[in-house]
User: Fold VOC domain-containing protein from Rossellomorea marisflavi.
Amino acid sequence: MIKRLDHVVLTVKSLEDSLRFYTEVLGMEEMTFGNGRKALAFGDQKINLHEYKREFVPKAAHPTPGSADWCFITSLDSDSLLRHLTALGIAIEEGPVTRTGSLGPISSIYIRDPDNNLIELSTYINE
Assistant:
């Protein structure tokens, strides 16, 4: 019945800090929609941003910055990704390590965003 994921909502402490991180570090595109709402676009998906204590209604029962754990598939191989993150001064939490993605084995590097959400950046090993 479910065809695909369209968007998710991320609750953040600072729209500015989150927009800067996701656009500069991860290469997502900032977009504005509705009545000035902010989102991050990549591929055919987007992440709507809700500022903590100013969330758009309806909302999750307990929206909390720092409670997300994402896995994004990247176009960069692990070595190139490490060089990119290191050049930007981004601390590596773990990796590269082998994990299992939805379509098979992936090589993953873990970092944190400004709200301390865990970000897993991965490449499929057999591609």
About this structure: The chain is about 15% helix and 40% strand. Strands lie at 7-12, 29-33, 37-42, 45-51, 69-73, 94-101, 104-112, 118-124. Residues 15-25 form the longest helix (11 residues). The chain has a mean pLDDT of 96.
